[in-house]
Design brief:
Blueprint: E1 2-4, E2 10-17, E3 22-26, H1 37-43, E4 48-53, H2 70-83, E5 89-94, H3 96-107, E6 115-118, H4 135-141, E7 146-147, H5 150-158, H6 168-178, E8 179-181, E9 187-189, H7 193-201, E10 218-223, H8 234-240, E11 244-249, H9 256-259, H10 261-278
Parallel strand pairs: 3-4, 3-5, 5-6, 6-10, 10-11
Antiparallel strand pairs: 1-2, 2-4, 7-9, 8-9
Helix pairs in contact: 1-10, 2-3, 4-7, 5-6
């Protein structure tokens, strides 16, 4: 269902099924909610899974304003939460999705019952690099936007970094739902390179200070890659929150929730259940 946001934009919310309390998946930059279907299948045994496509991603249209500030992404998450007819909703956020989910909770306490965030991009002011350009934005702008077919896109992604790190089911779901078919059979990215680049350009605006009012139980997760700039953000996130714990997955990288749905899904369900027991 496509729901209106408070700032006049829109967000697509997908019901991925399951039984139990609700959980909302908030995706990483460039991905979409249904790219996490493999993980949703694991979670659905204990949780009712929902996923949001943030503005310009997946099946959510680009905003008329052309604005991709992460503060605006918070409105997308809040609109998705309000669309879920459940008193208790947990949240799973990946990368950008983790940052905006925690910011939504900090700005509107009680939005979520618990949060599991994997390598959330929450950057302390003293850790922000001094630069005149954003390397991630530059790389996104150069992404290949169109492929002869979805099978061609799948083969390309599976044969080279970084998306070859995804488990097969997650990569298939990303290609299936993250690319649109044209009448001639060609497949194009729904989140265009220019949109993805704009989202990266708007990053590093959510800080440990800005999310510190989030009182809910939070499991802050990272991969174990040595020297990862994303994993290095985690200690400051944990320190800023009143009820947060750190978990490191030695064998995973930044795409963890799309690399090992079984392990991540187990830990998300355990965290949600433990948080519910505290209520």
């Amino acid at each position: 269902m496509l729901v209106a946001t408070r700032d006049g934009s829109a967000a697509m919310v997908h019901d991925l099924g399951g039984d139990g309390p609700s959980i909302l998946i908030c995706h990483a930059t460039g991905f979409c909610g249904r790219a996490y279907e493999q993980l949703a299948r694991v979670l659905s045994g204990q949780l009712h899974v929902w996923a949001v496509d943030m503005r310009g991603h997946g099946d959510t249209p680009a905003p008329a304003s052309g604005e991709y500030a992460w503060a605006n992404m918070v409105w997308d998450v809040l609109a998705a939460r309000e669309a879920i007819d459940d008193d208790v909703v947990h949240v799973l956020g990946h990368s950008m999705g983790g940052a905006v989910a925690l910011q939504a909770e900090a700005d509107h306490p009680g939005t979520f019952a618990s949060a599991y965030v994997y390598e959330a991009i929450i950057v302390a002011r003293e850790m922000r690099p001094e630069r005149t350009h954003n390397a991630l934005a530059d790389g996104a702008a150069r992404r290949q936007a169109a492929f002869p077919s979805k099978p061609d896109a799948l083969w390309r992604y599976a044969s080279r970094a970084p998306l070859n790190a995804l488990e097969a089911g997650a990569l298939f779901a990303y290609v299936d739902h993250g690319l649109a078919l044209k009448p001639d059979g060609t497949a194009v990215l729904k989140c265009t390179p220019s949109i993805e680049s704009s989202v990266f350009e708007a990053s590093a605006t959510i800080t440990p200070e800005s999310i510190s009012a989030a009182q809910l139980p939070v499991l802050v997760a990272t991969g174990g890659e040595a020297g990862s700039p994303f994993a290095a953000l985690a200690p400051a996130i944990v320190a800023s929150l009143p009820s947060a714990h750190l978990r490191v997955y030695a064998s995973l990288g930044h795409f963890g929730p799309l690399q090992d749905s079984t392990t991540i899904g187990r830990d998300v369900m355990e965290h949600a259940a433990a948080s519910a027991a505290l209520r």
